[in-house]
Amino acid sequence: MSTTTQTHGGGDEQVPASLFAAREKVYPKSVAGKYRKLKWIALVVLLAIYYVVPWIRWDRGPTAPDQAVLVDLAGPRLYFFFIEIWPQEIYYLTGLLIMAAIGLFLATSLAGRIWCGYACPQTVWTDLYVWIERKIEGDRSERIRLDKSPLSGAKVLKKLSKHLAWLVVAFLTGGAWAMYFTDAPTLVAGLFRLQIDELSLIFIALFTSTTYLLGGWAREQVCTYMCPWPRLQGAMIDEDSLIVTYESWRGEPRGAKRKSQDWDQRGDCIDCKACIHVCPTGIDIREGLQMECIGCGLCVDACNEIMTKISRPLNLITFDTHNNQVARSHGSTAHVRLIRPRTLIYGLIIVVLAGMMVAGLVFRPQLDISVLRDRAPLFVTLSDGDIRNGYTFKISNMTRYAKDYSLRLDGVAGATLAVVGQEDRVERIDLAARPDTVATYRIYVRAPARALASTSTPVTFTLTDKTTVGRGAPEEVDYHSVFIGPDK
């Protein structure tokens, strides 16, 4: 805590100074232009994807859900159109997250915080909330006057209408999120009947409250204080990254334009503050690149509108690189370098990861097994001297058809298999798995003590799909484990 010195009569008094400034509310002004149009397109497309996708149907057969995109927690399974991800394949999601992170690095290297300005959920929903606010309370100057005006019936009606509209959007947002985890028509029917499961209710309540608070109240505070990306973007951009830039070499010295003043005597900036009034975070881009800037380009539209009115060249504020600004200020030719070492590296990483994931999905087997050997006890010595090990055997049948399998063990001579609950001891046992399920069996492996060369003997379980036998190479899956016996 810092201090300030105040003088009172004959002495000085140390008064603590606050480290925190009160929030100055931002009233973004409406603007028209190229970048505003791009933001509207991004907003409509992204919101349409978010709200519509849960309603898209996809036929997977009679035993599977028909929702195209669904996180089935009861399954458990993740469905994405024709792709079906099982719990043991969570590494695909890890790959997607890595690709998303590298993609964000690539986008930032190319065009600064373009993700923040156009595609970030905080930006999209805040944009929607500001649009609702503008429709109900008016544009910037009207909203400022309304907030400063004394309490009245008209003011209360406008404020209540705005917050009610915000809550409706928030509820629709929370409901749509829950639909990604529950069948959409079933969830909506349950809402109308007031019969909804607890987990869906928690999701809806959570996303309704966070959307309302972050989009309606926090707004730019999320981008400035809560989001870590502004602190990291400095490491992602370089002198050839396209960022929102004020051409100070052309705009300065700034100031109000007098009719008698010639443009040769001053800069093009008339200090109208239009760029500040339209900024969602309320910054002055003329002070240089700042952490709060989300790179939306609305200040470009606002400035170009003013430049058109005063008959001056456009793009006093523009998307440009540092190197181009230096070149233009010296009258040299500017060049945009999209292909650079860092962008090539990011692009190659994305391509390699995408290729690996596609190959994994194309060539992944429809059959998977896992074997867990008993740890307590490690082995059992039977009355006839044979050694027995227990295993938990799981078969993942990733097809829509019931399957019959044959299981054998290689690695120990004379070993026999038996399913717990069955008396038969055979070299091969038959197992079955219902469609799109994980079948679990407890299996005992029994072997003569003389057949064990050491305490731990490598063994291989081989599971064969019996329906593929006689059709060329049968579908088989191997699992390597060990058989434990007494010390030799």
What does this protein structure show overall?
It is a single chain. This protein has 488 residues and is of the alpha+beta class. It is built from 15 helices and 16 strands. The protein has helices spanning 34-52, 91-111, 114-118, 121-137, 140-148, 153-179, 184-192, 198-218, 220-226, 229-236, 248-251, 274-278, 298-309, 322-329, 341-363, and strands at 3-8, 11-16, 69-72, 77-80, 83-85, 243-246, 317-320, 367-373, 380-381, 387-397, 403-410, 416-419, 428-433, 437-447, 456-465, 476-484. Strands 8, 9, 10, 12 and 14 form a five-stranded antiparallel β-sheet that branches. Strands 13-11-15-16 form a four-stranded antiparallel β-sheet, with no helix packed on it. Helix 4 runs antiparallel to helix 6 (153-179) and helix 4 crosses helix 8 (198-218). It starts with a strand and ends with a strand. The relative contact order is 0.09. The model has no long low-confidence stretch (mean pLDDT 89).
Span between N and C termini? 72 Å
Tell me roughly what share of residues is in helical segments: 25-40%
Oligomer status: single chain
Secondary structure: number of strands: 16
Instruction: Give start-end ranges of low-pLDDT stretches.
Output: none
Specify Rg, calculated over alpha carbons.
33 Å
